[in-house]
## 1
Amino acid sequence: MQARKKYIFLTFLVSWLLLFFFGGDQLRRFAFFSGRKAEARKNWPHWTDRTLLKNFADPEELQRDGDRSLLLPRERRAAWLSVYKNSRCRMETCFDFSRCEKTGFKVFTYPRERDQPISDSYSKILASIERSHYYTPNPEEACLFILSIDTLDRDHLSRQYVRDVDEKIRGFPLWNGGRNHLIFNLYSGTWPNYTEDLGFDIGQAILAKASFDTESFRPGFDISIPLFSKDHPQRGGERGWLYQDSIPPKKKYLLVFKGKRYLTGIGSSTRNALHHIHNGKDIISLTTCKHGKDWEKHKDTRCDKDNVDYEKFDYQELLHNSTFCIVPRGRRLGSFRFLEALQAACIPVLLSDGWELPFAEAIDWSKAVIVGSERLLLQIPSAVRCIHPERVLAFQQQTQFLWDAYFSSVDKIVHTTLEIIKDRLSPHRSRSRFLWNTLPGGLLVLPDFSTYLGDFPFYYLQHGSSPSEKFTAFIRAVSQAASLSQPILRLIQAVSGSQYCAQV
Amino acid sequence: IMCASAKYNTRGPALIPRMKTKHRFYYITLFSIVLLGLIATGMFQFWPHSIESSSDWTVEKRSVHDVPVVKLPADSPIPERGDLSCRMHTCFDVYRCGFNPKNKIKVYIYSLKKYVDEYGTSVSNTISREYNELLTAISDSEFYTDDVNRACLFVPSIDVLNQNTLRIKETAQALAQLSRWDRGTNHLLFNMLPGGPPDYNTALDVPRDRALLAGGGFSTWTYRQGYDVSIPVYSPLSGEVDLPERGPGPRRYFILSSQMALHPEYQSELEALQAENGESVLILDKCTNLSDGVPAVRKRCHKNQVFDYPQVLQESTFCVVLRGARLGQAVLSDVLQAGCVPVIIADSYILPFSEVLDWKRASVVIPEEKMPEMYSILQSIPQRQIEEMQRQARWFWEAYFRSMKAIVLATLQIINDRIYPYAAISYEEWNDPPAVKWSSVSNPLFLPLIPPQSQGFTAIVLTYDRVESLFRVITEVSKVPSLSKLLVVWNNQNKNPPEDSLWPKIRVPLKVVRTAENKLSNRFFPYDEIETEAVLAIDDDIIMLTSDELQFGYEVWREFPDRLVGYPGRLHLWDHEMNKWKYESEWTNEVSMVLTGAAFYHKYFNYLYTYKMPGDIKNWVDAHMNCEDIAMNFLVANVTGKSVIKVTPRKKFKCPECTAIDGLSLDQTHMVERSECINKFASVFGTMPLKVVEHRADPVLYKDDFPEKLKSFPNIGSL
């Protein structure tokens, strides 16, 4: 054995040497040592008369960019209202801010009709809103309205699909073309295209939708929410699965996927390629063809073997034991997988081009997920291998923070949605991106208290500041004013004796 | 696989010779022959060429007017109008960019040409000074390539910064005939002044098909999020005027408006504000009676009072940036330069670099309708927040507005980050001013986790040859319930560790790691054998710690997993006479370090100590054979910004007979050396990260008059 190894080694070396001595010249011409060295790099010329060049605009013109249009600003804004509606809605054109000025941010939910069945998820959403301190039972003082019709599942093949929504909403006196309404949706469109269409006219309503496509997403107006299952807890919610910060991330697998492989239809180009990166060691990518009624009709040569391999691994076990999880698009752009991986601290590697990520207006996803490109699947393994262990650790912790702060219950998802809308109403009293993305998260940091970071106890270290040197003594006196006697006086004396006491 | 990252040695320094010596000799000879061969080949093959190439490196020197002329036939094709639905995954050819270890896109610049129409009339003005600066900046940057075949992004040399200077149709035709145009795929155009009278569109009107647009003055309806890049309108004053940074704080005026030729409606609203709030609002306009020769752009007037512009901007806390005919205004750049907080009043405007910059930290955006309430809105902002916004505004200008170079590099970086998202620049790097970056701490263990008790800890004993004492330590430590493994780092190369049979029999696994060199840093190596998060570092002569004390220390560590939790406490003091730091081991009221002769900490710090220790500290410690514990204290305090935790009252740790040997003089040299270490480390870290605290952790019922039997940790030593 030893001798054989030695010979192989020797042969290898000798051939390498030979190649170098005799083939070096040819090698150099090829990409190996990039023969371009021989040529000069052609940079942008240093023009001899570059100092004589004119400015791109006359400085005075630049400063006097006056409004020479005939329209008054007021008129221009009025004109926008008629042009920028429906698919081009923005807060300034489709939302009536004046409704929120009198009573603040109040949310009204339509009364539920008895004959109208409501899915579990939607009743959880409504319950969350009704328990929120923004809720009002009085439509007069409401700023935001929420329908009692279940609009979560708009796949018309689904059992939960509610018919004739258009007619129903037209009957609502408060509808007002959808102004100041918020519509929740988890599933839109159906086989085979899965379009973004909800099957009714949402008008000027804000859409909070899962699997949002960047193209139909109205930036600054709509909200992308995560897809959550009907078992998602109403409140509280399970915590993340990260119990320890290990370095290097000692998990059994580097990258895993276990799921359906679509043989035809939308999303199949991505799902159909996933098996290519499977290496059976640290990268496990398992697919099955079994889904739908007539999968056998489309089945190809891989299917049978894949289906057998598929059964060998348990999805939960893979989640627990992998550093990265592939989260590819399904038929729609979002999937349950996303939240599952987030909770499991398995860093999501997204393969879902054009997906407007959940709450991306507030959340900086670049700190918690790897946004891959469907077209570059084969680069994913090397890309994730190259991520430094300390960044992996930071990613893992961020997944847990985000999960816990915004996703672990329906309450959190709904409240995050409401807070994002509230932030838009008064931009000067809103949370910066920093607040949303640092512990303890946007739901616990109320801009009504302060917008200054130093006023919160959470950010001293990250912000390089320190708490104030003094304290205020706040004494609760229960005893009667008449007996304002010794103990309390002595307490005041003792407290004010401290050099750090600012006021009592 | 080519990784940008360095490969870490996961096995550690425990390089027990695995080959027999005979073989080793054989291999070494072979390797040296190969190495010599390689060097010889390299010299022979590449030496002369490298000299040649360096002499070839020249820069062209000619006039901008001395460029090839291209005639555009009247019927040459025009690109489609810009496609509003374009996104990176639909209109951008990512295959051109490829996977490369540096994660950098390659940018190609087309050479400069002069375009004329059929009649020989020029299609556009000669290249502007700013566009030339922009292209020079690309050419000098890491992104640049002169090889059109390797390029990922193409930048035409056709200057479209200002739409007013262009002939729209002909410019479009000129774009369409570029050699790699291909419907504009992967082409990047820079435009700062879009639109023209009377409508003033918010994006460049030149048909450009799929080309990316870096535009100043996008509105939310023309900006393709995640595809276009919103850039500032460059203010040429940035280069001309040197405004020194002014410290944050209150200014003479509260609100200032400096723009000329505002729309009368805005003008009257501003005047109403001034009438209401008097002196604190200053509204400036063009000067009407300036003497000749004074540039109008550098003066502003209020009634008959003349002010220097942009200097006057530094006199105000807030500066109004109103939309004009266009949304993007060059005055924004001047305002930021002055460290004045911009109040942006331009509905639907996409702020510059909004994809990465957190404008809420540097500006106030007020809807046009709310202009009358501007004063009260601004008044509601806390003073300290205003000061931060002032600093932030100035930082944005310095980093992203001050020159065409800054603007173009930020633009390319944004596009680069979209293509290599896993190597993207973080929010903090984009947004934190250097002062914050410097003073802030981002704790690598920021998630407040309480590790499960069941995990236990790994004890690491560093030893050289004190076998008897070592065995006593092992026996003592093994009594701690939460111990899960014991690792002995055998640092003596000249002596083999005792035979297996001689070691104490303990209930947990005991591993001996032999090291290749006698280095102190070996105790802090992240050995694969450490499977727990918690590490107990303990010297081979610390024999007096009781099992209760150690178990209690571990419990405290679980609550504070990002701290050093230890027993012997020390302090650093500033010596006013010598003007340097001093090490203190006497009993004091305060503590700022715990010695790693007996301390719990997270395994992550082993990793940091081995791979991320700043400067030459690690080698310095190994060379001096001292202060590895102080280095660890510095490291942990520096990355977490937190103090150490001293547990239990014990102050003496060495056995009495040992201290007797150390004479007074020896003790003094020791103190001097340790003080030197502190000074050395403080200079390498550039700061003193250690935090002084006045408290320690004891069990709840410690010293209480209470039956010992009912206490969880009855056996806590006193001294």
## 2
Amino acid sequence: MGSRASSLLREEDIEEIKKETGFSHSQITRLYSRFHSLDKGENGALSREDFQRIPELAINPLGDRIINAFFPEGEDQVNFRGFMRTLAHFRPVEDNEKNKDPSAGEPLNSRNNKLLFAFRLYDLDRDDKISRDELLQVLRMMVGVNISDEQLGSIADRTIQEADTNGDMCISFSEFIKVLEKVDVEQKMSIRFLH
Amino acid sequence: MLNLWMPMTVTYIHLLLLLLDPSSALMSTQDPPPSLGNHSMDKNDVDEAEGHFTVPIAFRVFSVDYHHVQAPFEIVLWIMLASLAKLGFHWSGRIPAVVPESCLLIMVGLLVGGVIYGVRHTAPPVLSAEAFFLYLLPPIVLDAGYFLPGRLFFENLGTILWYAVLGTLWNVLGIGLSLYGLCQLGGWGLEEVSLLHFLLFGSLIAAVDPVAVLSVFEEIHVNEQLHILVFGESLLNDAVTVVLYKLFESFLRMPSVSGVDVLAGGCQFVVVGLGGLCVGLFFGLVAALTTRFTARAQVIAPLFVFLYSYLSYLTSEMLHFSGIMAIVTCAVTMKQYVEANVSEKSNTTIKYFLKMWSSVSETLIFIFLGVSTIQDVHMWSWPFVSSTLFLCLLWRALGVLLLTAVVNKLRRNAVTFRDQFIIAYGGLRGAICFSLVFLIEDFPKKRLFITTTIVVILFTVFVQGMTIKPLVELLDVKRKKRVLPTVSEEVHCRLLDHLLSGIEDVVGYWGQHYWKDKFEHFNTKYLKRFLIREDKQPKSSIVRLYQELERREQMGETDEGKRERSPENQTHSRSLLPEEMDSIRRILSTNLRNFNNKHITAYSRHTLHQDFTVDASRKACLRRHQSLGERHSSTQTHGSQVHLNSLYSKICSTLICTNCLCVLHLLIVSQSPRSAHRDPHSTREGSLNGPVRVTFEGLASPSSTYLQGQDSSSARMPKKLSFAFENEKGK
């Protein structure tokens, strides 16, 4: 399976992905075979159903939203580039990358981009603010049914209150960053992709 | 306050000296513990003697017959001494801050030993290896295993095993070989000691001791990960130590050693480790199963825990497996099932007894270490002792550095340099080495080895034990987080955990989450069904949750009131009452974590499990309240027939069916024995109707009508619920 899969992936594609995401050659080929195994329809792109077929993801409380994060705005299919682009957010941050030229733009796995990814899990309507409702939705998904509305509401209120600095009762992205400044996001949001 | 316990101990010492016989049961290595038969014989002898003696004299009104109670009396006196010393230690003000408890206890032991030696001019009783391994060590290890932080331990298991197995091997070979080399070259008069002897010595001196590590690290509060690494290593390296020790010992007895023998030794290591593990697993599961049936004899339930654990230890010692591994595995295995099966009081009893026994054991061990240091014959050799000390430190440091360099590539959180230093420096030796060195067969230089071992133990416990705290502060090791995370941090971090788990699933990367989830699934589907009482299964988490809910309610009202008053106050981080934050945190942690489990059970594709919970609740329902049964079955059909759009509502419906039924059963049960006060409390309505109502926002109407019908009856119940639980709490 491996050889067949990698033959569909051309060298120049691999090079481009490498440049864009920072993955190594072997990591890209390995992830391509994973992509290929998920792609039941064999059309070179993944649909939502392909993701939902992953059993553990189906029982993840945030499963839907995670799946959603792979798909670009309004589209129903994600190709391998898009797949890798999303996964690039979870590459561990390496020290030598900090010396790369700043003109190349922020790498996808920088702390900022990681936090932006997490932020977008809350912020479905992409208005750059987490409203109380959006927060409540996510909380409800994570917490389950055993907590009453009022209690969940107070937890949500407390969360917003801790973050909100400009009084708009929403959490903006900068406020979100500030709240998580003590948390080691680079480490928490990284997967060691096997070589 | 020092002068409080000094006279007490001195008094006891005098008592001891008056009554101590050379043939004291606990101490000597040569005499077997005197059996009851002996004592009765003694008594008869004494009686006979008395008989000869008393016949001409009047009947003795008052007599002292010490031999009758000698063995237990002495044991109790020693334990009393140990406990009083510990008591006095805690009363003595500033000293506990500087000197760890273990050091003080050794000093007390030294004192007692010195006094005994001074008065009687013979060596005081020595800690016998048998007493140590069979009686003193198991409670400590059992306690450690029972309270082991399971999640942290398994997350770091790879690293712990890496350090334990490879690190110990490295240390043993390093110390043994280098000592041999040095002695050959050094001209200290030790040339004739063979390589095997040195390897044997290396194997027992390299072992990090869990008792000593526990007692010292308790007091310095390093971060959890570091603590579990050092502690886990000290527990697991027992397997390696046992194998190597026995291996070298048997090699010593054999005329020649071939390569095949070494290979066999390597295999034996696997056998010992896995054997201990299996024995522990077996006894743990049997214990869990036994406690399932203790509902009618709750008083003896704790006894099973102790008996089975001790049995596992003894069995594995009998089979020459690693006893420590067996008992730790047994404790870890049976803990969750036992806690679910036995009553609250039994749980408390188990925990307290464990703590008590392990505390007594530990104290006794350290005191005996001190006492046994005072001996008649010490063979001293400056170069040997100092080089041993130096090599121990050196090889440990090198080992930790090398191993960490390798293991950091594979870990998510790297072990920092500071952590490495603490791991290397925290490798304390203790009573295990001491007992092992006494068990060596006699050879010319044995006393030298004994002396060296004692010096190494004393050095590590005193010097390293006392200086580790200032060093930790100096190096600014990441301390155990005293500052609790804010609610936002907790919520967002949980989000990140779920996110990462999901991404790992997408990538197909079998990270920690995968195995953990697999195990949880297996556990819930098979083990818990088998090992936990049926009626206990859904109840406990909900009971706990409702207790939380009640507390939160009381706090929640004040919370909301304050919030309404000052919505614009941005700069204040209004400090919630600690209880409030605590309860929020607890709610978050229990629910955010439990959700995964519940989620797996509820949403599992394996219908067998779902049916089981339905069956259980159905049975429970029929047993308790017939009228609810019909509505129960109707709910099930409703729940399955309703077509739901989103994943989320589907989850909620299945969850609410099982949960709300359990809740309602609970309420019926709690309500029935008490006379009902039927006044509805409007403020309380919200709390119970909340979970019932909220899920039906997204659902189609059929189910909602059913449950709204319940609202009126459930409105009366919340008050009953708190009453019921207050009573339970009060009991």
